[in-house]
Write a structure and sequence with these properties.
Layout (H helix, E strand, L loop, with lengths): L11 E5 L5 H10 L4 E6 L2 H13 L5 E5 L12 E7 L8 H11 E10 L6
Parallel strand pairs: 1-2, 1-4, 2-3, 4-5
Length: 120
């Protein structure tokens, strides 16, 4: 999954719906000190916990953004890749969010969605 993001030293990657940062912390060493991981979530407590974990782990390239349910608050054209892991199924209106995420990508950027299938 991380390979599908096509990251390298210096990349900027968004972990959309990061929660407490399981993937954000795994992406941090992949982009290295010159890159950054932007962990986006709507839950303030999860982002605070992630900041503490990143600080204690010396992962100073992890930043957080508190988005809203209909706006991830990501700048246009700044990221090389966006990962949506285990979050897509929670979006009540996915199209506006996907448009915002697509706008946040640099030309040629990657959007990777990994989620569970429908429940039977």
């Amino acid at each position: 999954m991380i390979q599908a993001l096509n990251l390298h030293e210096g990349s900027v990657v968004v972990d959309f719906g990061s929660g407490v940062g399981y993937f954000a912390l795994k992406l941090s060493p992949v982009v290295g000190k010159r890159g950054s991981v932007v962990a986006e979530d709507i839950r303030r407590e999860s982002l605070i916990f992630l900041r503490i974990r990143a600080f204690l782990g010396g992962q100073h390239n992890v930043r957080t953004i508190r988005g809203e349910a209909d706006d991830p608050r990501l700048p246009a054209g700044f990221s090389d890749a966006v990962l949506i892991a285990n979050t897509y199924h929670e979006l009540t209106e996915p199209m506006p969010i996907l448009r915002c995420l697509a706008d946040s990508l640099k030309p040629g950027g990657s959007l990777v969605i990994v989620d569970r299938g429908p429940r039977s």
